[in-house]
Amino acid sequence: MDKYIITIGRQFGSGGRAIGEKLAKKLGISFYDKELISLAAKESGIDPEIFDNVDEKAANSLLYSLSMGLYSFGSGFSAMGDLPVNDRLYILQHKIIKEIAEKESCVIVGRCADYVLRDNPNCVNVFIYANMEFRKREAVKKHGIDEERAEHIITKTDKSRANYYSFYSGQKWGMAENYDLCINSAKLSEDSIVDLIIEYMKER
Amino acid sequence: MDKYIITIGRQFGSGGRAIGEKLAKKLGISFYDKELISLAAKESGIDPEIFDNVDEKAANSLLYSLSMGLYSFGSGFSAMGDLPVNDRLYILQHKIIKEIAEKESCVIVGRCADYVLRDNPNCVNVFIYANMEFRKREAVKKHGIDEERAEHIITKTDKSRANYYSFYSGQKWGMAENYDLCINSAKLSEDSIVDLIIEYMKER
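YS: structure for the whole thing
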């Protein structure tokens, strides 16, 4: 492979982001997660905080968008001026992901990147997941989430990611067949998963 | 790991069975697929052909079972004498899978083995899948299926496997989270997949 992109879909608390970061570091390539918001914000002139609020959330109903003030910012993006901010962020991230994939090898976490790059033969799509018990422990330890509320937050975040993924890709989030490789992170250390993905890249 | 079991769930035409066979051979351990039917038939005294007809199919309705003559064979299995033959085969295979897992390291293809052995810490659950285009090609080439009918047969077989899995395990077939490792066989050769699973075993 010449230039290649590894996309990582991940359940909340599965360690997918950390695995992606370690993988990018070990391969000496760029890493994009929240960084995509900064790029989208920069390109659109919209406050990154506004984008952050709707990141990886499917577009809300028109009424909800209006009530939340998420609608029509009248930015320089005249063609997108009438779209809810979620859709604008999706379109911008879509464009940025395509540009990045043209330019450099990298790891991209979330944001339907697997679907955005579905026609790119040098794209490897990975999904990281784990059982609830493991993810609760991780959410408390790594995200500082209250133990009592951990399961609720995990379920809510993943529901939001699933909706986002299905809204924009028309596919079911977490179905093995959408990915090239799916790894249960409750059974292997982060470093071992990184090594396994690199092994996979070599076999390809 | 001392004794270990690798279970392989697979979409029809994905090459999962061949991968399982090669894997078992390379690891020097036993391989079970249809062999489980022979064992179940031997144990129950029921004609293997009758079991073969209902293999990996969920139990039918009582009426259907009666009309198909799949009901109450009055075999030596008095406790199971009133069960549809699908359920009898499941119960027998369940028992045999547990016994095999106690006795030796092996590869087991299909038959909800991942679910049957869910409490066994030395069990590694793999799922093999591929896109329809790839599976159609494989079905024609390896199973000698007519090209025109390939998609219909693949869809029907997988629907049957999905029903069987969901009926007995209560889980959704093909969801990444039911497995330790899921590999898209359209992107990697069978030998590379075998090597990757062995690499995974080493990391565990």
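YS: worth flagging: The radius of gyration of chain B is 17 Å.
IM: good catch. Also Chain B touches chain A through 25 residues (CB under 8 Å).
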